[in-house]
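haha ok so turns out i had the wrong file open the whole time. this is the CORRECT one, sorry everyone. sequence first:
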Amino acid sequence: MVRKKRPREHIIADLSVNYVERYVFLCGYSVERIEYDYGYDLVIFTYNAEGEIENGQIYIQLKATDSLSLLADQKTISFPLARTDLELWLFEPMPCILIIYDARESQAYWLYLQAYFESLEGFDLSKVGESVTVRLSKDNILNRQAIKIFAKFKNDILSQLQGVIRHNG
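then structure:
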């Protein structure tokens, strides 16, 4: 009798979640796993120095791979994203971070999605086909410092929103 086998894709997906969660916990933050993935895998909640929860959250989309697609420079990762995901991420006010987990090297890299597409001159989501390929720098290594940077992105957005509320209120 043949038993069901656990596919490699499931193993590396779990490893990628574990990898990210560890750095989140080391920063003193918490993370929630999204059971039904409709564009986000994790949500990070941040806390101030007194341990009080802060407003806003950070959305994480994880992609795990055994075969990282590198450009000729060997410093740039190429990764395709579905247009349907972009429609969710690019209209989300809080930071959406794409994390690519390289299972062979046990290393992860990140991209701040809204900032990436905002910086692309002439980018028009309505003119994108079924998918678009993004490029991540291998310098954007996921570690504690990166998680703290994500928190800064969130806090910068909240500061802008509070300024608008004060100005209009």
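The chain has four helices and seven strands.
again sry for the mixup
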